[in-house]
Each structure stands twice: as C-alpha cells, then as structure tokens.
Write a structure and sequence with these properties.
- 4 copies of one chain form a homotetramer.
- Helices cover 79% and strands 0% of the residues of chain A.
- Chain A has one domain: Up-down Bundle (Methane Monooxygenase Hydroxylase, Chain G, domain 1), CATH 1.20.58.
- The first copy, chain A, is elongated, with a radius of gyration of 18 Å.
- The first copy, chain A, contains 4 helices and no strands.
- Chains in contact: A-B, A-D, B-C, C-D.
- At the B-C interface, helix 3 and helix 4 of B face helix 3 and helix 4 of C.
C-alpha cells in the first residue's frame, strides 16, 4: 500500500524464487492483492463488531471466516511456489532441491502449527 | 468502519450475551481492538510484501503469524464468553444452558474446522 | 493398560468433573469407545498402507481423516465437559468457575495449537 | 498388520511416486511404522482413559498430543513426496509437474482443512 515506486522498481529484479521474476507469480499478483484487501476488510469488520458489542459467537464466526481466507491465500501461494521454485531447483540439480524442499516443508509445518 | 458515536451509544444496550452489558466484556474491549488493529497492520504488511515481490516463504511465515494472532484473539473472546454467558445460563436454569453450550461447541468446531 | 474389572469398579466412584459420576458422561461412554476403536483401526490401516508402499498422497488423505475423527471426538468430549463440569462450577459459585473456564480454554488452545 | 505376504510382494513393484520404488521412501519405512505404532498406542491409551472415567481435560490433552503426532507424521511423508515425486516430475518435463503440484496442494489443503 505504501510501497514506494523505488521499492516496486527494485522488486522487478527480484522474484518469488529469490532470483528472477517468474511470470506465474506476476500473473497472480492482482488476484493475491484482491484477496488480501478482502481479508483486511474482514479484520476491520471485526473491529466494528467488537466496538458495537456484537454477540461473541457472531464475532467468532467471522474470525473463522478470516482464518479460512488466510489459509486459502497461503495455499495458493504455496502451490505457485512448488510449481515454480521447487520445480526450478529440481531442474538445476545439485543440493538446491533439498534446501527448497526443507524450506517449504518448514513453512507448511508453521501453517499446520505442529 | 467508522463507528459512529451513535452506534457506540446504541450498543451500550447490547451485550456479549445478547442481553445486558457484561462488565467483563467492556473491560477487555480496548485490548481486543488493539489486537485487531495489530492484525490489520499484519494484513496490510502482507499486501506490501506481495506488491514488492517478497519471497513466497517469507510471506507464508507472515500468514502463519496472522493466523495465530487471530486464533489467539478468538480464544480470549471464547474464554470471556464461557465465563459470562455460559455461566449465566447455568445459573438461570432451564434449557438455556443446553442452547448456550451447543452454540459454543459449534463455534469451537468452526475454529477447529472439523 | 489392561483395564481390570476392579479398575472399572473403582472408576464408578470417579467422574468427568473430578468428583462424582455424571450420568451424561456414562451415557456417552459406549459411543466414545466405539469412535476411538474406529480411529485405532484407521491408524492400523495407515501402518498397512506404509508397509505396502501405498502412494504418499493416499496415505496423507487417510491421515487427514484420522485427524478429523480425533478432533470430532475431542469436540464431543468438550461439549459434555462444558454442559456438566463448567455448568456445575457456575452453580456452586465461588472461584470454581474461573478455574474451570481457564482450564477449558487452555485445553481448547491446545486443540487449536495456538 | 494383516498385510499378507502376497501384498508385500506386490507392493515391491509399487512406489511412493506410483511407479518405481524410491529408496528414500524405503529408508524411512521403519521410522514411519515406529511412529504409527506409537500413535496407535496413544489411541489405545485414550480408550483406557475413557473406560476408567479419566477427567475430560486430561483426555483432551492426550487427544492434542495424538493429533500433533499425526500431523508430524504427515509432514515427514510430505517432505519425502516433494523431494522425490514432485522433483522427479519436474525432471521428466511435460504436464506431469502441474498434476503433481496440484495433487500435493490439495493434500496440504486437506491437512489444513481449509
């Protein structure tokens, strides 16, 4: 939101794989931002509900919906990561694939909170 | 979004138990709003990360933190609900307690996504 | 480990609230044991799948089913606990309700793994 | 458990990628079975707890431990799957990688229960 132009320019050299811009990522960028703005709206809705003394259970239902939306966003991101970065690492050969799989598994573990 | 004073006034007749204002709820209100504003900041941070092509795994780490913060908020709310509304229903006697416990269990189930 | 008849007899003096036998608990006991035996069967099924080199994804699907069955069992137990023990604590008055709600909330938190 | 010798023989032609035996999978097989037998023991422990009228909260704690152990097993399996099957699909080229990533993402989604 407050991303500076300079930041946006610099990022065009970066990528979701930490090296080059992958087109898959950029194609989805608009959709990701739209999802996140919707989630931001849900969180602001939660503040309004608390402020207006909405019944607890109704607030909890909204929390469940927001959590689900966040998990769904994470899953989409993960899918692109596996398709581009993990697959790229496999093609490159060497130890890269082990590092990438290890990293992805740890991220999934954090999502599962095991 | 822009909770009016009128809204706040009207809500003083409501309550987290759906009937009267319980003081426990109001005491925590400021803390709840603070937590939610912090979560809103995390979601805006996620938008910035996507916009700046941050590495997927770093975005996923931030999603996990936001989900955790939401679950933690839900748990706090649930605790107050059990302490005030469910306990009140038990004191009132009658069928009220069954309805309240059933409702709370369903809310917990949604949080667990079973 | 191998629950003796004596153990079963002794337990009739105990209760799910830590004091007296509540009938709600005993009524559900058979159903709980049936659910748990089904879950035990699922876990043995998982061992068979690993032993027979079943495709990973199919094993993961079975793990999800078992986890869901466990969460569903937990939710049922929690419902009875809220209906009997937490409600009883409310009727007794005093600090008991705070301790019971605190304890139940912590258990829910562990289930959510926040 | 009731795995027949015939079954075990047949499975030696199968693999975790649905085609050939990958050695990575077989190296971990003993560890997987050990983990699953421990989880089976936990589930039997739960039956004993219910049978002996153990306090609900203590049963819930044990359920959380079993769920965590199952998720941890799933994560280990997923890691091997990504390292072997998904990476293999990337090397093969063609549409295989898309199908494998799609399948893995759906399995992760089921684990997250989104």
């Amino acid at each position: 939101m407050t991303t500076t132009e300079a930041g946006a320019t610099a990022s065009s050299e970066q990528t979701d794989c930490g090296e080059h811009v992958t087109h898959g990522y950029h194609k989805q960028k608009g959709e990701h931002l739209k999802r996140l703005r919707r989630i931001e709206g849900q969180i602001r809705g939660l503040q309004r509900m608390v402020d207006e003394d909405t019944y607890c259970i109704d607030i909890l239902t909204q929390v469940s919906a927001s959590t689900k939306a966040l998990q769904s966003f994470a899953l989409q991101l993960l899918e692109e990561h596996l398709r581009h970065c993990v697959a790229d690492a496999a093609l490159k050969g060497g130890d890269e694939i082990d590092a990438k799989v290890d990293e992805a598994t740890k991220a999934i573990g954090r999502l599962l909170r095991t």
